[in-house]
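Batch manifest line 498
LIGAND: uridine-5'-diphosphate
JOB: complex structure
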Amino acid sequence: MVQKKENIVMFPFMAQGHIIPFLALALHIEQTRNYSITFVNTPLNINKLKQSLPPNSSITLLEIAFDSSDHDLPPNSENCDALPYSLVIKLLKASTSLRPAFKELVSDIICKCHGERPLCIISDIFFGWTASVARELGVFHAIFSGSGAYGLACYYSVWTHLPHNKIDSDHHEFVLPDFEEASKFHVTQLPLSMLEADGTDSWSVFQCQNLPEWVNSNGVLFNTVEVFDQLGLMYFKRKLVCPVWPVGPVLLSLKNRAKVGKEGGVSPEFCKEWLDSKPVNSVLYISFGSMNTINKSQMMQLAMALESSGRNFIWVVRPPIGFDINSEFSANEWLPDRFEEKISNRGLLIQKWAPQVEILSHKATSAFLSHCGWNSVLEALIHGVPLLGWAMAAEQFFNVKFLEEELGVCVEVARGKTCEVRHETVVEKIELVMNETEKGKEIRRKVFEVKEMIENAMIDEEENKGSSVKAMDDFFNAAISMKEKMIKIKREEDNNGI
Ligand code: UDP
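JOB STATUS: finished
ARTIFACT:
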């Protein structure tokens, strides 16, 4: 008899930054385990995903009904990509209305499988409510965090305590009451939504409902590595009293990345040729991720720093804050006079989208000036590239703190979208990391240690499994054991005629 495959239901929040790590996890599970996967999302996102799945994938894409116009959002806004930042919170709030439809959808799956439940539901950090739906249906539930544990621990702690509101107005530093290990924070290390939060604003109200729901989950999967992210992992073990499974890094392969990325400003081949022409460890790569940009004056100062540093660089440029991010980049308007001419031999400006992993994996790349979104961080560390941190939003400020203070693989350059930036300071920081300074050497030594930790965590040999492979085993064992327990209970109830 052919044994039926266990089914896993996966449900990310409707934003590329969430859908992509979930897709990476789904493909990773598909390749390494014999499970079938149902990937749930709203119709427009499912439509887009159809083009992103490799042709031989057996992942089932399943629509959950959603109409943005019912939630005071512009029509067809089913993804943060399609929304200005100010409306993201509206989409988050609207997503809580999916609860009854999600419960029905999972019940339908159970019904179609003649009462057999999915092995587990893996759902988003913004969908805390799915944990109680899973409980009601007797299904194992895990949250999957595309962020690292330290960054998310700070995020969880700040939202649940708003500690910056409890300090005197002339003090600017605070500690997290339930995460003292993370030492001091400065108010400038908070993203705008947190800084402005007073407990009654929309973000606070949303998080006050969402985060406490996590305790109903059976555990949290993290896209991180156990050995370097202990502090954050311990925080969640303590806070939620549940297992945490550091299974990372789970990233899309180059082939699959090409399908989900945006239209590129240059081809990977052109980029490679350009990098091939540069000496080993000589290029600084600069990018602020998939959705962020800096302000006009910051852009000017960064350009001046690149001009005066004399270093080779690749810079992914987007129109500054206040201009349509998808419009044409105007070097005449936003960069110093004759900038492109002056740097033409050693600088490459890429509009919109660069082949980031190809760049980070090239031997000519020496350092990465990044907003420190967690995917970018993992992609840098896995290739042993040290970071210059310039956080923009969300938990990125905490990632920079973690990378600088705990791992020693990063130097902070600037903070946020409004801070004043001086080109002299940027040059100093670039030199600190890229030059043969004591600090530069130390950072490179540490980043190679971290690279090795990541490689060890990913070893997948029968007799010698790395921590991330073991964590994935533990996660599935926990799900299987709960399912067996549920089946036993059901059988006993049936026997007793309950
Ligand atoms: N990325 C890319 N080219 C770009 C900008 C971003 O390939 O020009 C990819 C990058 O490799 C990473 C993702 O987009 O996988 C960005 O994710 P991250 O978590 O770093 O930041 P976010 O975009 O979510 O702020």
